[in-house]
Amino acid sequence: MRRSSRPLAAVIAFLTLLGLLLLPGATAAGAAPAGGAGPLPSVVPRPQTMARLGPDVTVPAQVRVVYGDEVDRPTRELVASVLRRAGAKRLRGGSGPGLTVTVGRLADARVAEALRAAGGRVPEELPAEGYALAARGTAVALAGADADGTYYAAQTLRQLVTGARTIASVSIVDHPLMPLRGVIEGFYGSPWTHAERMDQLAFYGDVKMNTYVYAPKDDPYHREKWREPYPADKLAQLDELVRQAADHHVRFTFALSPGTSLCYSDPADFTALQAKLGAMYDLGVRSFSVPLDDISYTRWNCAADRTAYGEPSQRTAAQAQADLLNRVQKEFLDTREGTSPLQTVPTEYGDVTDTAYKRTLRERLDARVEVMWTGTDVVPPRITVADAARAAAVWGRKVFVWDNYPVNDYGQAEGRLLLAPYDAREPGLHQQLSGLVLNPMNQAAASKVALFGGADFAWNDTGYDPDRTWRAAAAYLAGDDPDAATAPALLSFFDTQHLAPTFGAEPWQPQAPELAAKLARFRTDWDAGRQRAALEALRPTAALLATASATIRAGVADRGFVADCAPWLDALALWGRAFERSLDALGARLDGNTQQADRWFAEASSLAGQAGRIRTIPGETRPEGPVRVADGVLDTFLAAAPGLGGAGAHAP
């Protein structure tokens, strides 16, 4: 959306070693709770409540698994894979000695009793998608409010595997605060591939996102060719996506965007719209969106609309749109079983100014229709509770936020990956929103960094910690059995891609804040006459940046991430070497070896020049351009380094 051109055992242990913030119930970060049972594990999204019950549960070679009657196949398969990864060699049913894992609905008396026996709290009520989980001694119980909650309990169990043959002994009661949580593939430029979408849907299940909106701007059958049926091969892919979404408890929302050519008053166009949506319903889609964004309301697409509604204006456009959307809700959705309320993106989607357009839609639009809103701008620097309350008042309903982060399809994002943590969205927004979806980058796997945060925030915005989740995203990308160097390398790389632009001149997140802080400390020490100490303190940072690309390529389990980031990793390696050479040159100058210093400064300049000529992958990103790596921070330092004065070889 724009207005201008534009897999976890070792991971959990690693997160603890990184000193991540603990969940409620822990006495202090990294500290052992009373009883000496060890720290609480990191779970993403952060549960509403989690408490330690005792020593970790030992997973023997044989585990008994008891399933309730309504546990679906994906949940059974997930539980089995988690237990096998934890060390179980044989899974069997029935009662008997040894570890027993009980999985099912909280309403099942057997499941509730198993939860109680495992030391868990049996809540009187659980909201939709909620679950309770307990693990103690020889019992583990997963109790869901519904099928989704049971699946999410299994996803949490996956993260409680604390090492070889152990599961953290905890009690959890949890549920999401926002009903709709997920992603809208709504960017301009190269759409994701089928394989990328399949991978994304599995990822959404891992992080308890429940919504995927299919709305790629450059899919011609979504927008320009909206009347035409999908070719057989594309329809087969959509069918596979719908089934993949269901397997990971994700609601697949099909969006059709007819506004560029629709004649609102033409019965043939409404018939074509129904036929296109009907083909998706036949595939199993039960959630639909008719976006009307990025179109003009100063002209009609047919003369008949002028006759039916009058001259084009904010008011008449809203009247026509309301009539269309109401018909889709009443004549298409209401006549079919199992459908969710219609969603739309209004033409005015990025502000809270009350206009004739908004007033007309507010008064005429069916109250069930979900209205999407991007915030106080297309790419807002923040979204507050007050902003959302004003939007709800303007639209006459809670709004469904389409958050344009980490999308990078506009001019200010040229050459950038947006890898800063999801931030600047105010805790408490769940009280004012019907849901939250993030618009990602063309680079699907690289988008997981921000999406990790969006999933955590939408589930539990009141307990959200951007830095904690950012580090958890690095651990997730590193995989189940990471090398100790992989996550730090990823975090250093993320820092060089931290800048988050808006449509204006000022970004809403700064570039490379960690690196900038280290360079500022270096300059303070250097100017105070502590040149050698300053150099030695900075060398590990330069070495980390110089080697991070190779470490990431060798250690990251998500190969899609490596492929997405290839040009930036190439450039980072060169910038890192230039950084090291500049420090070498400064050291040589302190030693009085000015000729060697000059040679190393020249080498650093050459390396930086090579890095600056690396461009984005042709056809992958819109807009294309030279890749940016810690720009305005590292390049500025390297350019200034030859001009730094030295105190000579005697400097401390």
TrEMBL record:
<feature type="signal peptide">
    <location>
        <begin position="1"/>
        <end position="28"/>
    </location>
</feature>
<feature type="domain" description="GH84">
    <location>
        <begin position="179"/>
        <end position="462"/>
    </location>
</feature>
<protein>
    <submittedName>
        <fullName>Beta-N-acetylglucosaminidase domain-containing protein</fullName>
    </submittedName>
</protein>
<keyword id="KW-0378">Hydrolase</keyword>
<dbReference type="InterPro" id="IPR015882">
    <property type="entry name" value="HEX_bac_N"/>
</dbReference>
<keyword id="KW-0732">Signal</keyword>
<comment type="similarity">
    <text>Belongs to the glycosyl hydrolase 84 family.</text>
</comment>
<dbReference type="InterPro" id="IPR017853">
    <property type="entry name" value="GH"/>
</dbReference>
<dbReference type="Pfam" id="PF02838">
    <property type="entry name" value="Glyco_hydro_20b"/>
</dbReference>
<feature type="active site" description="Proton donor">
    <location>
        <position position="294"/>
    </location>
</feature>
<dbReference type="InterPro" id="IPR011496">
    <property type="entry name" value="O-GlcNAcase_cat"/>
</dbReference>
<keyword id="KW-0326">Glycosidase</keyword>
<dbReference type="InterPro" id="IPR051822">
    <property type="entry name" value="Glycosyl_Hydrolase_84"/>
</dbReference>
<dbReference type="Pfam" id="PF07555">
    <property type="entry name" value="NAGidase"/>
</dbReference>
<dbReference type="InterPro" id="IPR029018">
    <property type="entry name" value="Hex-like_dom2"/>
</dbReference>
